[in-house]
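Troubleshooting entry. The earlier prediction with magnesium ion gave an output that would not parse, so I re-checked the input for stray whitespace and re-submitted. Clean input:
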Amino acid sequence: MPAYAVIGAQWGDEGKGKIIDFLAEKAAIIARYSGGNNAGHTVINDAGTFKLHLVPSGICWPHTMNVIGNGVVVDPEVLLKEIGENNLDPSRLAVSDRAHLIMPYHVVLDRLEEAKRGDAAIGTTGRGVGPAYVDKVARQGLRVGELLDPEELALRLPEIVAFKNEIITKIYGGNPVDIEDIIALTKKWATELAEYIRPVENLVADALDNGENVIVEGAQGALLDLDHGTYPYVTSSNPTVGGTLTGLGMGPRSYGGVAGVFKAYCTRVGAGPFPTEIHGAEGDRIREMAGEFGVTTGRARRIGWFDGVAAKYSARVNGFDGLIVTRLDTLDGWDEIKICVAYELDGKRTDQFPIDAARLERAKPIYESVPGWTESTRSITKPSQINDGAKAYLNKLEEVIGVPIKIVSTGPHRDETLVIEDLIG
Ligand code: IMO
Ligand code: MG
């Protein structure tokens, strides 16, 4: 049986963690391919509430193997904390030897770079993700596998750290990081992580060869993609489907499906254009009602109406063949629900998503409205339970995006999930 990608289709925080926990029952492997602990995935089931940043959201099923692919950047301190909190042994979790390390100086640099950007700050999560990918691309990064030879690493680190400290102190006026502390950390990481460091691409390939299902877990979202997102207000990796192939080392023919996860409205954390943003009291009301605060940084999320132009673009760059709509229940009881179906850009109507941030900033949403519904959709699990108003809204989303909805999430708990059509065969 094949691989199934579950990809964030907006600006992140679409509810990927919940959906992956739900789907993982039928999978042998759940695999992360991009990003790092900038992600914040919440899983709620009968075993409790789990806030995950780095380990995949399949860990609650005892039969699953959870893997962190080469495309991910790994902060070993965060990984060890999550391993400890969730009692994960190497039979349940593996990390690629070729994933890059987020080092303490990356975290320092992320925060200093943001401070220097001032008004133009991206609003990063400050976890060192961007600077770690910069070192990867500059071919000066350190990889997880290098931890396995701590003596060799201890020889290389002084020069690397001295160079980073020059930048930290001379360019940004920050405080240098301590080389001895870093060497000690890498030795600790080497000991504690050694057994988890594995050739992840082989685990994935073997599972697929053996006819098992693999769920490929997205982090962030398509509109935060380094290439396809609202650059420069993006993350430093490729959350879109292309990133799954490089980030795990698998081929496109492995796929049985590529699903996009959409919230029933939009949110965005950090800076950058957001055409359907709802400002002021109405946005505040929705934020409070829906609890839209970040899992990673606790920041208030910006709120907006469903952006059909962005959604259609997202479906196209990912080739979605199925949609997953989350937080439908949050819309219960609203008088009227708006959907952006086109933009007005420089006096002309367009249904094309402008690629550059400056044009997107000028785009004004053109809305269509559907009447709200009074009946609750919370916790419903059968298509026959969807009221007519909610059905009309879902139909409108399908029509705008042009892809069928297969799963609807009607609450944060694993069981609050409605399957219209099985995603995994
Ligand atoms: P999940 O997996 C929402 C945003 C940050 C910032 C930009 C760059 O929970 O959907 P970075 O730290 O990546 O350099 O920040 O990307 N961002 C996210 N927003 N959900 C996420 O992950 C995010 N990961 C990064 O807010 O705007
Ligand atoms: Mg999140």
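This one parsed fine. Residues 8, 11-13, 38-41, 122-125, 127, 129-130, 219-221, 224, 235-236, 269-270 surround 6-O-phosphoryl inosine monophosphate (ligand 1) (CB under 6 Å).
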